[in-house]
Amino acid sequence: LSLKFGDVGNLKGLVIRFLLTTSLYELSVQNWFSLHRLQLLYNHSIQATFNATRIYAPASYSYHCEHVSSLQRYDALLIPSSANDLSKLWEVTFIDFQIQGFNIQEGHFAYAKDCASLFSPAILMGLVMSLILLLVLAYALHMLIHLKSLDRHYECKASPAYFAQMKDNDMGDEKEPLRSSGNESYELRNQEFCKIYI
């Protein structure tokens, strides 16, 4: 697959050639295509060659990636094929890259297989944060379940009311003599108790 720039200024003689291969994978029981090599040609001579890594998709799909580059900061999917050629003098970066080599219908890309891995840094950070929040929630639930209620009953008993001996016989049914070594006194039977629940 060749990308020619035609009459675009200084890029008139520049051609980017994508070498695609297709093969059958028995486990998936379907054909997959892969970008095998990328070549930069200028004035009909090869200037640089890059081997492509991890750029593949089912033959009925297209391949999409936000960055396909030879730079390390973009994960370097393009690797110079040799240390002796001029590939190291070139820095190649495709932004919003999408390619489909086979089974193209009506001039449109098929469904795209994205290059984002299942465990990209953003996804890993999200999983770690979710795990931390889950642990905090589990600890909070554990503390709530094992929280002992303040069920201590604080009983406040009114101090007995003592009265001096009275000679009124009408009060006899409401008082009871107390046994003491000193003066005779009486305590009310119907003492009130109060309980405080917290």
TrEMBL record:
A Pfam family that the UniProt record links to this protein: Ac45-VOA1_TM
Domain V-type proton ATPase subunit S1 luminal: 1-102
Bilayer topology: Single-pass membrane protein
UniProt entry tagged with the keyword ATP-binding: no
Compartments in which it is found: Membrane
GO annotation (BP), single: regulation of cellular pH
Transmembrane segments: 122-145
Chief localisation class: membrane
Alphabetic keyword roster: Membrane, Transmembrane, Transmembrane helix
Recorded GO MF terms: ATPase activator activity
Keyword Metal-binding included in the entry's annotation: no
Ranges of residues in domain V-type proton ATPase subunit S1/VOA1 transmembrane: 118-154
GO CC aspect terms: bounding membrane of organelle; cytoplasmic vesicle membrane; endomembrane system; proton-transporting V-type ATPase complex
PANTHER family linked: ATPASE, H+ TRANSPORTING, LYSOSOMAL ACCESSORY PROTEIN 1-LIKE (PTHR12471:SF3), VACUOLAR ATP SYNTHASE SUBUNIT S1 (PTHR12471)
Family per record: Belongs to the vacuolar ATPase subunit S1 family.
Protein name stated in the entry: VAS1L protein
Organism: Glareola pratincola
Taxonomic placement: Eukaryota, Metazoa, Chordata, Craniata, Vertebrata
